[in-house]
Amino acid sequence: MPLIELRKFSEGVQSDTGFSRAGVAASEELRNLTVDRQGRQSARAGSTRPLVTAEETGLFTNIFRISAQGSITTPRRVFFGLQFTAQKLRRWNGSTAYAALGSAIASMVREEFYTAPVMFRDRLFMPRGGISAGAIWIDVEAATPTWYTLGRAAPTAPTLAVNGNGANDLTANAWYSFSYTYYNSAYGIETAPTSKVAIQAVGATLTVRVTTTLANDAQWDQTRIYRSRAMNTQAAAESATHYLVGTFTHTAGAGTDNSDISGSNLDFVIGGGFTAYTLGDANETGDHDQMADDMQFVAVYADRLWWAGGRDRNIRSSKKTTESVYPDWAPSEQEITLGATGEYITGLVPLPSGGGLYIFTERNITLLRGDNIPNTVDQSLKIEDVGCPFPRTIVVVGGVVMFVGTDNQVWELRGTEARPVSRGVNNYLTQLNPAWKWLPCAAQYKNQYWLSYPSGALTTSSTGTTVTSPGGGTLTSHIAFNIADGAAWDLSAVKVGMWVFYNTNPERNAIISAVNDGTDTLTTEDWRVNIPADGYAYDVVANNRVLIYDATYRYWTGPHRNYDVNGFSWWNGPYDNGELYAALSDGGFVDRLDTGTTDTGSVAITSLWRSNWIDLGKLSRVKGIQIATSAASVSLTGNLYRDQSSTAAATSANWRRVGTNIWRCGLFARCSQCLLELTGTSYPTVERVWIEVE
């Protein structure tokens, strides 16, 4: 009896290549299976739940592991999660729970739940993503890391009064102006100065009392007072250069401090006694204003932080002088506008070689070279053929940038050359919708590209929906709406943090903040385009498939199931062991992937292999299949499909050994084309498959 041999499963998934040829197992699907370099297929590894076993209320939308050495002897490793809850930014306490990081981050929009931070100068910098939200930074070395606003607007102007408390008085009848700043002595961060306030030294009252306002922000531990030299007029004093008088301790809170300043001695703060001073350096922090632009992306390139807006085309870099870098200082003159009107930036990625910065938009990619905006920056190199509408799919794998492009293909970017690499799995990606912008996500792991994405709607309502506004909600300043279905709407699998879309117009969408399966009702917030309306069908969408690309051997496996991933985190810092973690998209858990033999430590993994259609050449009789495996037993179910039918013509789970490491299963059908399927929860290592034909 002739045998058609299928081998070389390392061809991977080739689901859109047509018929397989004898000798090559180009698979339509490798679900929950891996393939080794010898071409053998076997069940993928499982997952465990080592961090916290109790489900959190809201989904973690993004997770990230930070390692820092800094000035401490033991590296600090901190695990953060952005979560759709009132607390929003949270950290794992290292043992049993997630805790809020400082106070809750208020007034968030959905983009902020998906932003990706960077480490720079021992600090974690994270864009906020909302309009006028600026950015935050975190000292990960702190025993209890706390977030702070990046920069701060200039403090409240000082109030001045003259008295005769000091010695070495100011020049009689001259005009002096004063200002002050807040200062962080640990990092050298300084705010813009207050406006200049002038006063005249008259008569015997030739000491000025400067009243400064305390900031309710713990990142500022000092106040710096500046003054002008003696000037003849008020106007001249208010326009004069300011020089440092001195620095004193600042305690965050409410109220004021008073300092007495004369010509060459001062009393910081009142009651400490006068000490001598000399004027120091001129103030150069005039444009150290808080960055309040819509910054959704950040990257480190050329020893600067680079920020980009997600709802505009602006790119801004931090200030760099010949002496030092100021990551907290990103003045407006360090900004350029890129691309055409209507183009939105979707990502910033430094060249793996360090020779430039990729700037992604939805339609194009620009390679920016040079670092001095606007003087020496070259933005002339542009890839016009493809952009990236899905920011979280941009990942560097083995020195190559990979991403899902405008055409829903996965691309590799090397220098200025881009090419698609997903031909074999493109049919699984055709349903991706640009309206799902923040849902698909990817990770680098073991020189592989892991892509998580939605395959379609998780559940859909009827058209008999009604909409009401209950008030309140998780997102400050955003109106919440209830969507109730007049028919039974299965919401049992829906979680807080998932997205809901108009069935007919996905651009109209929101994030889910409450679920009531008993009343078939969703509470939704942050609607885009338009608020919801009665009488429409609504889709709930979440990531529920994973495709994996092996960049070494250039093949795909998947689409994998039970890997419902909202965000990845590869633990590859000092003293980590290369673990891959995932924030789940089907529940408030964070799991470790690629470990164990079951999912979540206890759930059996169902694997499935499907061949492509095999052309037998003429009408033939298939009598069975054989597999080569060293397993002591086989408990797979075999399914045989014929002549493009979607219904199995034969099914069997009866296997018997017919030779050394050879097992046979009888499957009978007459056909000219056939497709094989093997599935089970105890999937052995399979080296080859044969089809018995007569």
Low-confidence stretches: none
Supply the number of structural domains: 5
User: Structural class, please?
Assistant: mainly beta
CA radius of gyration: 32 Å
Could you estimate the helical fraction of the residues in percent? under 10%
**Which band does the percent of strand residues land in?**
35-45%
Count of β-strands: 58
Count helical runs: 2
Categorize the overall geometry.
Answer: elongated
Can you summarize the main beta sheet? 9 strands, antiparallel
State mean pLDDT (0 to 100 scale): 89
What distance lies between the first and last C-alpha atoms, to the nearest angstrom?
A: 6 Å
Name a few traits of the molecule:
694 residues; mainly beta; Jelly Rolls; 5 domains; 9-stranded antiparallel sheet; 7-stranded antiparallel sheet; 2 helices; 44% strand; elongated
Structure commentary:
- The longest helix has 6 residues, at 234-239.
- The strands form 13 sheets. Strands 1, 2, 52, 53, 54, 55, 56, 57 and 58 form a 9-stranded antiparallel beta sheet that branches. Strands 40-46-43-44-45-42-41 form a 7-stranded antiparallel beta sheet, with no helix packed on it. The protein has a 5-stranded antiparallel beta sheet with strand order 14-18-21-22-23, with no helix packed on it.
- The protein has 5 domains: 3-32 and 607-693, Jelly Rolls (Sandwich); 60-149; 159-276, no CATH class; 295-381; 457-541, Elongation Factor Tu (Ef-tu), domain 3, CATH 2.40.30.
- It is elongated.
- The protein has 694 residues and is mainly beta.
- Helices cover 1% and strands 44% of the residues.
- The relative contact order is 0.14.
